[in-house]
Fold these 4 entries.
Entry 1:
Amino acid sequence: MHFLLIYELSPDYLERRGQYRNEHLQLGWDACARGEMVMAGAMSDPFDMAALMFSCESADTVERWAQADPYVKHGLVTKYQVRQWNTAIGESAFNPIRP
């Protein structure tokens, strides 16, 4: 299944992320290597949200990842939600539906 982890970022996210960025990036690349995370990144103009896409069996995997993320632990993420994403279009869709 696909899941989206949606972050709401603190107003001082850009100023504070440097001290936690390497640990955050390593956590993400490790999840990619395990086949759990597909891609991730912050939204810009303004930098107030981020979206992380996962491909895994359960939302629990995504929740555990978020709880381990230093951005969450240190308050750079003010709120997050995990949502199952029912992908229907594209080569990587879990439930491809064609016309």
Entry 2:
Amino acid sequence: MNLWRVAWRTRSFKIEAALTLLCIFLLTAVCLTVFPIVQHRQGVVLSDPLLPLFRPINMDWPTFVLLYSAVFLGLFHALRDPRRFFAILQVFLVVQYIRVVTICITPLDPPLTKIPLRDPFLYSCMNNVFTKDLFFSGHTATCFLLFLLAREKWLRCYLGFTTLGMVGCVLATHGHYTVDVLAAFPFTYLSYRLVTKVRKRFCWPQEAPVIAQATTALLTRWRELRARSSRSSRAA
């Protein structure tokens, strides 16, 4: 948490945090306005080369176990570093704003055999289930962006697994066309690259050395404590 204290002392981080939170509220308002309109418009049913090869399967719980575990682990480990935490939020925002645009300009109806995903936690709070927010897959994009921003090797392996698992889940339900799932990867990667470049140029340019010093000091202290604990256990 010392990194957060250091970050909150800087004016640029406060501005970044405020703008990020503002964009989250704006995204919520945009989605609540746009998605009901999209849901009631006439769309096109695509001819998919993959979906006719198998019957749809209900994958509610596997889908949301993968999604929520990925989000929880990704954000939990990012909480130690405010730069990483807000980078995740910002990539997510860019992905979702792009997704709103692509959904608006691609009027699609879902596959005729689709089994709608019903979130076990959110479904009871929603009056409607949106089925036409198709291009591109938001579930796949979310898992993939967490994978791109993970640092720990074991976490990257798990998030890579959840990303591939999410691809399988959304296709198994016929919830998305194959092109929806495949398109999530380039759109998410481009969003990640864009946010990374913008952050390097505008976010905390003057305070970065101070934060780096604080990070180094914390890591050094942690290693000292581990070494002391190891010596104590050997002595015992």
Entry 3:
Amino acid sequence: MSDKRPRRPASVFETAEAVFKAPAKQAPPLPPKPRAIPNAKETVSLRIDQDVLEYFQEQGPGWQDRLNAVLRKAIGIDEVS
């Protein structure tokens, strides 16, 4: 007669080994990432010198766009208008 029940571990070590050898449970797949919006701005925290910040802010509203334009020109991907 064959017993179809799984063999019971004989020691604590066999029990622990059985736990570590057990297959890991798979997490459900993550939903797909939404497509990036072309030319979308991203909020970041940036540390720059106070005098640089003041220079751009003194020119009035739109200083972040002007700073972005200067950075784009510096890396060669756009011209400052």
Entry 4:
Amino acid sequence: MTQSPNNSQPLDAPRPTIPLPRGPVPQAPPERERRSIEIKIDGESVAVAEGSTILDAAKKLGIDTPTLCFLESLSPVNVCRVCVVELEGARTLVPACSRKVEPNMSIRTDSERVRLSRRLVLEFLASSVDLSTAPAVHAYMDRYDAHPERFGSARATVAQPVIIDNELYVRDYSKCVLCYKCVEACGVDAQNTFAIAVAGRGFSAHIATEFDVPLPDSACVYCGNCIGVCPTGALMFKVEYDMRQAGTWNESRQTQTDTICPYCGVGCDLTVHQQEGQIVGVTSPVDHSVTHGNLCIKGRFGWQFVQIQPVDPDGK
């Protein structure tokens, strides 16, 4: 035991040759028990935990509610209004993705008023932007018998060029429905880079970098999480864009393989998309406990080395 300078009392200082004992392993506090709330959806009773949304309750009953701006890993922003439902006693339709359940709610998800609202929203969107790479939206339009052509064929939003200023992904804002998903993924919900935001107001609102500088000059770190959440193809892998331009893109001939990212020890899950033996994109599952659908630049784009052809030592 070490002695004090005046050799009167020993000091309890640790010795460098003796390792310190390990402390307790930190544990997350148990989740607070939430009371159950019972509501009625389309005449059927369902009980969900306090704090759940109408969308959560509808999913519990197996009701398929259309969404565009909603994603489980992002904060709801209530901008697309495709998920609206009819709440008894409410003057207006309410967004199912963000409205919290309350005791004794009575909700209708497929009334004529709801169907009309969803049909009009889909028609307005499809009559103003290019939704050719948004198959989910086309399925919604078939479901609600939407006919956007009745508002005319001239799409003002489409009259802008594709932005190609890097080799990783392209931006085609003629397909952008301003769902805010890319902004949320680039902000506090995932990356905390804040490279993009909604600029302008009204009809002039658009997604832009700070001061509208080119992407390579912005704060973008090329994580590609904005691509992972985009529902319309406004943000797209450049490989996919090039293949679509060449007419070789064919999802029916593509396979998906789940694997683990090889670059570090975090353990991110990857879903590798291949077509005819070539990797055409990488995504990550939204429900994965590590990534929640998010990746870094290496995980999202660092697969080109797999496709480099080996050099023949004989020069053949």
